[in-house]
Write a structure and sequence with these properties.
Largest sheet: 4 strands, mixed
CATH topology of the largest domain: Histidine-containing Protein, Chain: A
CATH architecture of the largest domain: 2-Layer Sandwich
Pfam family, one: BON
Helix content: 25-40%
Radius of gyration: 19 Å
Order of helices and strands: HEEHEHEEHEEHEEHE
Strand content: 25-35%
Protein name: BON domain-containing protein
Keywords: Signal
Distance between the termini: 6 Å
Number of strands: 10
Structural class: alpha/beta
Number of domains: 3
Shape: flat
Organism: Bizionia myxarmorum
Oligomer: single chain
InterPro entries: BON_dom (IPR007055), Lipoprotein_DolP (IPR051686), Transpt-assoc_nodulatn_dom_bac (IPR014004)
Length: 217
């Protein structure tokens, strides 16, 4: 099992490896496998990239991000400009039913709400909004429309895990209760844990996933 110091060193090396991240702007603290990121970055995409980089590191059990986003004068946008940019980006993305999503912007903080048919549509809306200049934070409250759960949803998820090169299907147990899926077992990184959760959300009829997977070395 990795020590906190070993995890910290690996995190710092992973941040340094990312071409769009200046690791000198980010503070890293590790306690019992939980990583805390601090610092100030000049756009939201860098914050997301830093957090995603940490999730790839083996031994990281949880991430507590406290990075702030402060845009320079040349990149500051009004709430109206940010809102218009998000609307336009949604229109260009075929995975997003823009007519079903409401956008609220206050001082660069984004709230997405509404109801969509699939979880991937909710995730796509968040990913697109993350790339808009001026965005400081995103609260994704979009809900998934109630759907009839197929009887073979458990089998579909299990098969999807077996197809994935990033997931150890044999170490994960899938339990389905109505439209809720519960995952238990073990994974080797929080990136694998998140990947397992994302796959479960893609199953038809699923709109709640309880991810109880444990991260082990």
């Amino acid at each position: 099992m990795k020590t906190d110091l070993e995890i910290k060193n690996d995190v710092l090396e992973e941040l340094e490896w990312q071409p769009n991240i200046d690791e000198t702007q980010i503070g890293v603290v590790v306690e019992n496998g939980t990583v805390m990121l601090t610092g100030v970055l000049d756009n939201f995409q860098k914050k997301v990239a830093a957090e995603n980089a940490v999730k790839k590191v083996k031994g990281v059990k949880a991430l507590a991000g406290d990075i702030q986003v402060k845009y320079g004068t040349n990149y500051q946008k009004t709430d109206l400009e940010i809102s218009k940019a998000i609307v336009k980006a949604f229109e260009w993305n075929t995975a997003i039913p823009e007519d079903k999503i409401s956008i609220e912007v206050r001082d660069g903080w984004i709230n997405l709400s509404g109801e969509v048919d699939w979880s991937y549509q909710k995730d796509a809306a968040k990913r697109v909004a993350e790339n808009i200049v001026g965005v400081k934070w995103i609260n994704n409250t979009i809900t998934i429309k109630e759907a009839v759960l197929p009887a073979d949803v458990k089998e579909k998820i299990a098969k999807a895990y077996k197809r994935s090169a990033d997931i150890d299907a044999n170490a994960i147990t899938v339990e389905v209760i109505n439209s809720l899926v519960k995952l238990s077992g073990t994974v080797h990184s929080i990136a694998e844990k998140k990947a397992a959760e994302n796959v479960a959300y893609l199953a038809p009829g699923v709109h709640i996933v309880i991810n109880d997977l444990d991260v082990i070395d």
